[in-house]
Amino acid sequence: MKTISNTLLLGLAAIGLSLTSCETVENRISEHPDVFSSLSPRDQALVRQGQIRSGMSLNAVWLAWGAPHQKTTGEMRGNQTETWIYLQSTTAWGYGYGWGYPGWGYGPWGNGGFGVGVIHAHHHAHFAFFGDPFYDPFYYSYIPPTIYYPYKTVTFWNGRVMSFQYLVDRY
Q1: 25-92+146-166 CATH fold
Q2: Closest Cα partner for 50 from 152, 149, 171?
Q3: Residue 133 backbone phi and psi in degrees, to 5
Q4: What are the extents of the domains in the chain?
Q5: φ, ψ dihedrals at 164, nearest 5°
Q6: Cβ atoms of 161 and 61 closer than 8 Å
Q7: How many C-beta atoms surround the C-beta of residue 110 within 10 A?
Q8: In the 8-state DSSP scheme, what is residue 32?
Q9: What are phi and psi of 119, to 5 degrees?
Q10: Which end of the chain has fewer CB within 10 Å, C or N?
């Protein structure tokens, strides 16, 4: 019984630590009050709301939006630029012909990919193939893959916001 309580305590401590270590605007402000106090009152109000504006400093954007997932450099009208890219994720569920076609695949009518055999001869050598000819490991995965995509970007010139975009999800 003592092992269960210790394990439970350790698990709760891990969950508590993960919840308190979530990065938020308020956490960034409280950890870097000097950076926040150096901003204008207008920018401080925007940062508290998680918003940015053109002309805002690099530090103000970091306080408002956090660290970017990717950075890239470029050139616009002869000036060096830096673009921050923020990503979101989605789960990619299976695609294809579905489960349980009679005689194929997995499901109440399928045979789980077993029992279907094909003998193939090639240059006097014989090969046997067993399984579902339409098997797709992506489709049948129990852990669907995670796909990351950009949802907002901000471009800086001379350390100031030159432009920013919120990319719209069309689905």
Answers
A1: Beta-lactamase Inhibitory Protein; Chain:B, domain 1 (3.30.1450)
A2: 152
A3: -70, -15
A4: 25-92+146-166, 95-144
A5: -150, 155
A6: yes
A7: 16
A8: -
A9: -100, 125
A10: C
Mean of pLDDT values over 120-149: 63
pTM of the model: 0.61
By the 8 A CB rule, do 134 and 70 touch?
no
The span from the CA of 24 to the CA of 87, in Å, is 16
User: DSSP assignment of 118-171, as one string?
Assistant: EEEEETTEEEEEES-TT--TTTT-SSPPEEEEEEEEEEEETTEEEEEEEPPP--
Cβ atoms of residues 51 and 42 within 8 Å: no
pLDDT tens, 63-119? 999 999 999 999 998 999 999 999 998 887 655 444 444 444 444 444 444 444 445
Torsion sign across C-alpha atoms 32, 17, 48, 170: positive
Q: How far is CA 72 from CA 56, 94, 164, in A?
A: 19, 32, 14
Mean predicted confidence (pLDDT) in 53-61 = 96
Contact 65, 86 (CB under 8 A): yes
